[in-house]
Amino acid sequence: MQWNALAEALFGPHHGLKADGDLVLGTARLDGAELTVIGTTHHAAIGVHLALAQAHAVLETVRSHPSRPILLLIDTQGQQLRRRDELLGINRAMAHLGLCLDFARRQGHRVLGLVYDQALSGGFITSGLIADACYALPEAEIRVMRLPAMARITKLPEAQLEALSHDNPVFAPGVGNYVAMGGVQALWQGDLAQALRDALVHAPRSDERAEAGRARGGRRLAAEVVDRVLQAA
To answer: NCBIfam families from the xrefs (predicted)?
Structure first.
């Protein structure tokens, strides 16, 4: 789905959002209440400029619009793989974006993520996965690492990882697997505006992803490990 079609489905034809290159930004209204919408499009590669532009929008919302909800519309191929961005400190810029979103949450802002097209790697980790809750459209594509790259990192044969991916969501891409692991709270289908209304009310305010993964069978041991670490602390 294109970002403007999504915006219209969520907020109506006069949604107030605009795209500037790969950045989607604006103030939208839902049932008379304002939301800050910050998003990316064109399978954006998140470089220093785009990460800082999003962070600025988050901080401006905290400064000028206390407690206003923030909705992140996510379509990214991950971080920008360019020497220029690496030299400028892309890791720090993306970490800054993540910290700004966490700061907004601590200041009372609801922060929700919606993957509407593609979500890969670091561009997803520092946006949707840092939100209070992340949702996705059924046709969206989510993955953090392709199996060939995973094979190089883990030193396991790609065929073995392929076999594991059939039964274990941790090794497999796809929105259904991320729901099973707890990384995605739920899929939005049908009335998207109503789905947003429900999320603004019912989205968890604490990190329940490990528990959700255990309950859904996608990450069976994460919650147990967290519990053991907390007991030992």
So the answer is: malonate_gamma
